[in-house]
Structure formats: C-alpha cells, structure tokens
Amino acid sequence: MTGSLAIDLPALAAALLATVACGSLGNWLVLRKEAMTGDAIAHAVLPGLVAGFLVSGTRSAVAMFIGAALAGAAAVLLTTFVRRSTRLEAGAALGVVFTAFFALGVLLLETQGARQVDLDPECVLFGSLETLFYVPPSDGGWISGVPHELWTLAAAATLALGLNIAFGKELAAYAFDPVHARLSGRAPILVERALLAVVTAAIVASFTAVGSVLVLALLACPALIAAPHARSVRGQIGLSLAVGGVLAIGGYFLAAHAEQLLGARSALNAAGMIAALMALAVPCSHAVHALVSRRA
C-alpha cells in the first residue's frame, strides 16, 4: 500500500463506515421526531466510555462499549424519572440529563488521568481520523495492520444495515403511526428497544474515531438533507447515505488540502469540516426543494 493510501484510505473508510452506521439509523430518529434522542445518547455515553477505560486500564472496545451501554441505559431511565417527577417536557428533560452526563464525562477525563492515553476532550469532540494509519505488519499479513477502529465501525455498519433490512417495515409503521403499530402488533416494543440499542452501538463505535461533533451531525444531517427529496422511506435512507458519503469524502479532502484550497495555515480537522459541510447542506437542500416546488 502506497504512503498516501496508507494515510488517507483508513481515515476515509472510517468516515464512510460511520456515515453508514449513524446515517442509516438517524433516518428513523428524524422520522419519529426524536433526533434529540441520538444527541442525548451521544452525550450520555461519554462517562461510560471513560469508566470502561478506567476499569480495564486500556481502550478495550468491549469494556468501553459495556460502560457506554450502561451509561446510555442510565440516561434513559433518569430522563424518564425527571419527566415524571418534574413534569418537564421530553426535550427539556433530555437537555438536563445529557448535559449532566456529558459534564460528568469531561470531569472524569480531566481528573482521572484518561487524557494521558489519548482519551481527552479534544479526542472526544473531534475524534482521531487523522491518526488512523495502515501500518504494514512485520509478518507480511495485511489484516493486523488495519486500525481496530475500522473493524469496530464495520461491525456497527453491518448491524445498522441488518436492522434496516430485517425490521424496516416495523420501524416505518412505528415512525408514522406508533399507536396503531403497537395495537396491531406490527412494531412490538422489542423493535423499538433494538433500535435504541443499535443506535447506541453505532455511537460508541464511531465516538473515538470521528468524535461527538461528527456523530451528532451524522445522526441528523444526512436524513434532513434527503427528507425533502425522497418519495419513500427506503428512498430517503438510500439518498441520505449517498449524500452523506459524498460530503464525507469532500469534507475530508477539503480539510486535508485546506492550505491550497482555503488559504489556511495548515490542514484542518477532518471531522469538523465534514460536520460543517453537512450542517450547511441541510438548509441548502430545503431551499432547493422550496424553489423547485414553487416553479412546479
């Protein structure tokens, strides 16, 4: 593998796999008007990630996933408790809980020494795309040289696509008419919990590679970009992944070549640039749709 491919290909692959994992699931959150749920989970898993590291002493994917899953479950239960005990609306309760969990995670990062092993606030916010390199192993094989983040992201992307394929009809029924779906048995509570579990898995898998900023963008922006132009749920998911993939590639290369293209002093953060492009594309997409609708 050439030097440029060894540097750029793993980072690009990570960004695209995170787009598939988070972007495909984000469509269901947007359709159900629960995009803030993904935001809350993304913030709430941080103390769990740090706790998993502190308990295991390493950045073990298994330990950090278990910690993040427990933190996500605790955040959901606490949100329910806050809503029932204070009668706050869902958005307010989510805002209180995920802000508290994220602050706790940052506090643990700063006080427990996790930042000494490349688990620090900057890594949490912007990920580590630029540090994902292919290192040719000495034994001549190629698999062991692939960054472990790619394997984790590939598993999350496969799980997300599998959920979409296996339970697409049930998820669509629950998104458009949850009361009827529950009464008819077309979307049992187990499917809803499976969606939240897979969303949590996708967030955890993407967190250390692309950071929370890009995770939040991937959960909402591709779906919001595609929604005005889609004629079906399947079409929306496909269009969101296509647009998300193009923006991920474009944002990565725009950040990498910012000195020549933007006149920056150095290359820019790839995850931040991709997130910025996606956020900018949302109002542009809706403006284009409104313009076309008026002319039609």
Word description of this protein:
With 296 residues, this protein is an all-alpha fold. It has a single domain, classed as ABC transporter involved in vitamin B12 uptake, BtuC (Orthogonal Bundle). It has eleven helices and no strands. Helix 6 crosses helix 7. The longest helix is centred in the last third of the chain and has 38 residues. The radius of gyration is 20 Å and the shape is globular. The N and C termini lie far apart (51 Å).
Question: Which secondary structure elements does this structure contain, and how are they paired or packed?
Answer:
Layout: H1 3-31, H2 35-56, H3 61-86, H4 90-111, H5 121-126, H6 148-176, H7 178-184, H8 189-226, H9 233-256, H10 258-261, H11 270-295
Q: Would you identify the CATH H-level superfamily?
A: ABC transporter involved in vitamin B12 uptake, BtuC
CATH topology: ABC transporter involved in vitamin B12 uptake, BtuC
Could you spell the SSE succession in H and E letters?
A: HHHHHHHHHHH
The Rg value, from CA coordinates, equals 20 Å
Identify the overall geometry. Answer: globular
- Mean pLDDT, rounded to whole units? 83
Question: How many domains?
Answer: 1
The low-confidence parts are none
CATH second-level architecture: Orthogonal Bundle
Class of secondary structure makeup: mainly alpha
- Discrete helix count: 11
Q: Largest beta sheet, briefly?
A: none
* Strand residue content: under 5%
Residue share in helix: over 70%
Please count the beta strands (DSSP E, at least 2 residues each): 0
CATH class assignment? Mainly Alpha
